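Action item from last week, closing it out:
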Amino acid sequence: EVPENRRRASIYKGIVMSRQNAGIHTTIRIRRIIAGVGVEIVFP
């Protein structure tokens, strides 16, 4: 576990490519452009 003073909240802005509903194991895939390159980020 991460100590309280090391936690960070980040805002991710992009297009939601997919969302897989699996109860507690739901994942979201977001696509955004970073420095001219398309990047997909998966949040478990």
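Closing note: The chain has one domain: 9-43.
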